[in-house]
Amino acid sequence: MTDTASHAPKADGKGDIYQRLGEITRELHEALKALGYMPALKDAVGELPDARSRLEYIARLTGEAAEKVLNRVDEAKAEQQKVIDSSRQLVETIGAVPGLKWAMPELLQWSSEIQAAAERTDHHLTEIMMAQDFHDLTGQVIKKVVALAGTLEQQLLQLLIETAPSAGSESANTPAAPESARRPELSGPVVNPEGRSDVVTSQAQVDDLLASLGF
Amino acid sequence: MADVRFLIVDDFSTMRRIVRNLLKELGHGDADEAEDGSVALHKLRNGKFDMVITDINMPNMNGFELLTQIKSDDKLKHIPVLMVTAEARKEDIIAAAQGGAAGYIVKPFTKATLEEKLTNIFRKMGWA
C-alpha cells in the first residue's frame, strides 16, 4: 500500500503555506541581489542598534524627568498641607472670637479664601503627579518598539548571512527566540483605538463589559 | 476603615510611586512595592499583605501569571487582586475577571477611579 499521506499537502494547508513562504524568501534573496540592495540593507542593519539606543535614551530621560517632577510634587504637597492646616486653624480661631469676627470680617474672608486656594492647589498637584504616568505608558510603547527593532535587526542579519556570496546558508542557524518572545503577547497601550472593536477606550467601557458578564 | 497593607506591583517605578502616593492620599499609608510578579510572589509568601495592586505587562512574571499563582495558593488566594494596566483588549479584561481579579483599571486612570474600585473591594471584603 502506497503511503500517500507523506506526499500530500497537510490537511490544514500549512504545508502549502510553508512551501510558498520558502519560494517568496528565495525570490526576495534573488531580487535583493539583482537590484543591488545589499549595501543599503547592510546600512539599515547597522543603523538599527543606534535607533534602539536613541529610543532607550528617550525612555531614560523621560523617566528621570518624571521622577524629578514627583520629587518636587512631594515637597510641594508637604508645604501645601502646612498652608491648609494653618489657614484652617486661622479660620477656626477668628471664628471663635466674636469681637474680631465682627470688627474685621475681612480677616475671616481672607483666611477662608487662602484655605480654599490651598486645597485647590493641592488638587492641582495631585493632577500633576497623575500626569507623570506618561512615563509608564510611553515607556511601554518604546520597549515594544526597541524589541521590534531588535527582532528586525536579527532577521535582517540572517537575511544578509544567507544572501552573502561566500557564507553558506547551511551554516547559518536561526538563533532561538528569547524566552520573552515565546510568552503570550500582551498588546500594551493602545496607540490607535479608532475603528477597533476589540479594545476599550475608557474605564466606563471596562466597567460596562465586566457588568455585562456578571462580574 | 480597616488598616489594609498593600503590595504595589509594577515594573515602572514612576507608576509604583504614583499609586503609593494616591493610596496615602486616600488614607492608606501602609504599602510595599515589587517590580514584577516573581518579586511580588516572594514578598507575598514571606510577608503579610491584605491586597495586591498589579500591572499586567511586566518582565519575568506578568500580572496574569501572578494572579494565577495567587489564586492557586491556599495561603494567598483570599487576597484581592486589583489589576491596573494599559492592556485594553476586551479578552484581557475578561481573562482577568475569570482568573479571579477583584477589579480592573485601565491606564491612564484618575484618583476617583482608584478610590471607587477600592471602596467596592473593601465592601466585598467586609473592610469598609
Q: Can you characterise this structure?
A:
The complex is a heterodimer of chains A (215) and B (128). Chain A has 215 residues and is mainly alpha-helical. Chain A has a domain at 15-163. Chain A is built from seven helices and no strands. Chain A has helices spanning 14-35, 38-96, 98-103, 105-131, 134-163, 179-182, 203-212. The longest helix of chain A has 59 residues, at 38-96. With 128 residues, chain B is an alpha/beta fold. Chain B has one domain (6-125): Response regulator (Rossmann fold, 3-Layer(aba) Sandwich). Helix content of chain B is 44%, strand content 16%. In chain B, strand 4, helix 4 (90-98) and strand 5 (103-106) form a beta-alpha-beta unit. In chain B, helix 2 runs parallel beside helix 3. The termini of chain B are close together. Classes of the chains: A mainly alpha (215), B alpha/beta (128). Chains A and B meet through helix 2, helix 4, helix 5 and helix 7 of A and helix 1, helix 4 and strand 5 of B.
Number of strands of chain B: 5
Oligomer: heterodimer
Gyration radius of chain A, rounded: 32 Å
Structural class of chain A: mainly alpha
Provide a concise account of the structure shown.
The complex is a heterodimer of chains A (215) and B (128). In chain A, 73% of the residues lie in helices and 0% in strands.
Descriptive terms for the model:
heterodimer; A: 215 residues; mainly alpha; 7 helices; 73% helix; elongated; disordered N terminus; B: 128 residues; alpha/beta; Rossmann fold; five-stranded parallel β-sheet; 5 helices; 5 strands; globular
Helix and strand arrangement:
The complex is a heterodimer of chains A (215) and B (128).
Chain A: H1 14-35, H2 38-96, H3 98-103, H4 105-131, H5 134-163, H6 179-182, H7 203-212
Helix pairs in contact in A: 2-4, 2-5
Chain B: E1 6-9, H1 13-25, E2 31-34, H2 37-46, E3 51-54, H3 63-71, E4 81-85, H4 90-98, E5 103-106, H5 111-125
Helix pairs in contact in B: 2-3
